[in-house]
Amino acid sequence: MNHSKQIEPRFIAGPPGTGKTHKYITKLYEKLLSKYSYEKILILSHTNVAAEQILEAIIKLPQMNQITKKELRETIGTIHHYCKNRPSLLGKLSKTKLEDHQNLIQADRRFGLDGNPDIDKHNLYRFRSDAKGRGLSYDEYWRLCDQDSYKPYNVQVMKELFETYKEYKKFNNKEDFTDMIERFIDPSVKAPDVDAVIIDECQDSNIPQTEAIEKMATNVKDGHFYLIGDADQTLFEYAGSNPDYFHKLASKPYDELAEGLRCSEAINTKCKTIIMPVWDKWNSHRIWTPAKYREEHGLGHIGETIKGQGYRLPYLERGSTHLDILLNKIKNNPNQTFLFTYRGKPSDARVTRFLSGQGLEYCMVSADPKPHASKKEINSHYVWPDFVNGKPMHLTQIKSFWDYMGSKVIVNKKGDFDFKGWTEKNYTIDELINEKLLKPDCKQYTDFDLIRVPSGVTGGAEKLHYIKRVIANGFDNEKPNQIFYGNIHQVKGLTFDNVIVDHTMSMKRAPENFHTQLRLEYTAYSRGVFDYWELASTTKRTLGVRSS
């Protein structure tokens, strides 16, 4: 690092669910506000979701009553966003989008390659990002990477494509996430004049990001440079994050959080058992207590340790006692959430097949959770028979019907009819027939499946069978999403009442080393509050088992 001075970071270490993100950051921010302006206190994280959660906590502080979210977003956000907005002397650039990557695919033909137009990002983007994240040249990274995962490209083609990509970005005033960091750490860009820097989930930082963070802290006052995280949750080694760097910081932390606020005794014990070889290696054994009941749990006595339970699932595909326990808990605890998590594809299909077969509503973990079938769609199937039999339905529900109806029942192909001028009240099916919106014979279709738009709704027959199973289970339109699924990297930082961890290792890339697998497993189980289920692997490659 070539900064004028190097500020040593104050590392705040804490196992999962000890209040690093919300409790500690909020208190620290309040303390800093007594000395410095909010305009000169940076709080940055790696994802928009995490940054938004922090902002929501900060905006509630009494000192912020005159400050808007828009104003706070100048100093509370993602590392990339801050880097993008700082070097104004280099000019404003727009971020690359899907269309830019698809344009790059066209260049493949120069090399006799047929690019895939359906991909989200060109292989070059991943190759360049992973190489830069490790601080390696393209040739150096090519010698180390899983070369098969980049077929049909080789390193020479990658380098030539990069020159094309660079010219394209220059001509169109574009930049990608890698560029944002590189522009910021460029020596021509001055370090910002800020009084304090707080980095959440710092262990996710790769080499260039770490350099950017250190540059941000160049001018802080009184050593107020804080890295907050958990070295045992360093999961992005493939993108350049360095667990050794963060384990060294964690071995002598500035502050250490020990009080568990999330994990039951059962989950706490499971996680400690998993991560112990990593703790032994670094001689950094953590004090981490099980969580105690709080008012929001609504169970047990406040202040009493949450015991929890651990179960083993030899398979999802066949019944077992512990599977019965899981299904009973799902069906009889509507206020609890359940996370199914795994290393990667095709374990996601294993999970979704099970949930669909059981007729359980479920959502993919994301900033905007994606259900297999929306409440609106399922409810249209659920209430249609009553509507056909004369029960009045509110205009809102009738509009929902319209999204799935086809010309079989709609007059004059009015599938896009917007109901402008209609009153927000209940209507009968006969009223819609009289208004010549529905064909009279629509009343013969007591099954909503028969009038859906075949091509307008994704999922086909399998999805229809799933909807029928959900309804048969006792569909509740008012019940919030309860079951979620996502890979371990997606669910990191999130909390669920119960967690089901698939131990299958099935990634196309080369298997992670033993300690990486332990960190993945540790992170997965620690998402839960009460109970966990350990789902056996379907392959010889298993989380937490050293690869041969």
Give the overall silhouette.
globular
Q: What Rg is obtained from the alpha carbons, in whole angstroms?
A: 27 Å
Give the uncertain stretches in residue-range form.
none
Report, as a whole number of angstroms, the end-to-end distance: 38 Å
What is the CATH fold-level name of the largest domain?
Answer: Rossmann fold
* Average residue pLDDT: 88
Number of distinct helices: 20
- Helical fraction equals 25-40%
Main beta sheet strand tally, sense and closure? 7 strands, mixed
What structural category characterises the helix and strand content? Answer: alpha/beta
Strand order of the largest sheet: 9-17-16-10-15-11-12
Number of strands: 17
Describe the structure in your own words.
By secondary structure, the protein is α/β, with parallel strands linked by helices. The protein has 20 helices and 17 strands. A seven-stranded mixed β-sheet has the order 9-17-16-10-15-11-12, with helices on both faces. The protein has a six-stranded parallel β-sheet with strand order 3-2-6-7-1-8. The chain has a two-stranded parallel ribbon with strand order 4-5. Helix 15 crosses helix 16.
